[in-house]
Write a structure and sequence with these properties.
Layout: E1 8-13, E2 16-25, H1 32-49, E3 53-63, H2 70-86, E4 90-98, E5 103-112, E6 128-131, H3 137-145, H4 151-162, H5 166-173, E7 178-183, H6 188-197, E8 203-206, H7 217-223, H8 228-237, E9 241-243, H9 249-256, E10 264-268, H10 270-282, E11 289-295, E12 302-304
Helix pairs in contact: 1-2, 3-4, 5-10, 6-8, 7-9
Bound molecules: cobalt (II) ion (2 copies).
Amino acid sequence: MEHGEDAGVYQLREDLAVIQTVDFFTPIVDDPYTFGQIAAANALSDVYAMGGRPLTALNIVCFPVSRLDKTILREILRGGLDKMREAGVLLVGGHSVEDDEPKYGLSVLGVVHPDRVLLNRGARPGDRLILTKPLGTGIAGTAIKAEMASPELAGEAVRSMAALNAAAAAEIEKTAGVHACTDITGFGLLGHACEMIEGAKEGILIRSSEVPYFTGIRDLAETGILPAGLHRNRAFRQGMVAVETTCPEWLADILYDPQSSGGLFVSVAAGEADDLLHRIRAAGVTAASIVGEVTAENPGRIRVV
Ligand code: CO
Ligand code: CO
């Protein structure tokens, strides 16, 4: 746990380890079915980020039964169940408590070969860094609440958050040269990149112009429509990050944007990076991009150009 791994791993025998993770949160969209889908995709993601395959899950539910209509709860659970089915995951139980604010998520059990566990540490100099989903869900969420988001942006962000990381994970699993992997969530791209190399002998170079983000996010970032978590992420990590003048301020902000159900962030040997990227895109994850590389210079630090 010392390096903030995405999930816990316990080795059962020489060829089998189990992965355990739990994740739940308050609604980030109005539609209960969509919220259920996003919460489930987000919870399952931590198993994919460890190189594993999710098998079973438990529902975790908080709901104000006396204040909100029960059909809302049913829709949340239906959204989650549909996502679990899509992932080939069996729902085996759950627990609910009465609470003033609805919350939903999953505790997930997965499996992995002990030799194939992907930690967020282990990136090697020369590795290329692949990000599989566009950034901007935090900014989009803030704009949706303020009724400033275009329907295109809201649609794009919601579809992305509800999408499983399964297809990208399946390609990553087949790639021998993958050295480290995590998923981008609350700490934003730069926060999770920092976790990869904090205190390590390697550094990271991010090419900001290569980083994918949703349509309309630039305008919102330039207008200052930024979630509080973005400012917290920047305050926490800016000491480790050098942003050069080639990266405009609005784009640096996007790199700190906290993501809900974000993409995978993979460190892969340079010689296999293009092939892996091609296969991930061919699997339908079309926004995936090589956004930077691991360097021998700048140990434990990130340079953004
Ligand atoms: Co994670
Ligand atoms: Co998580």
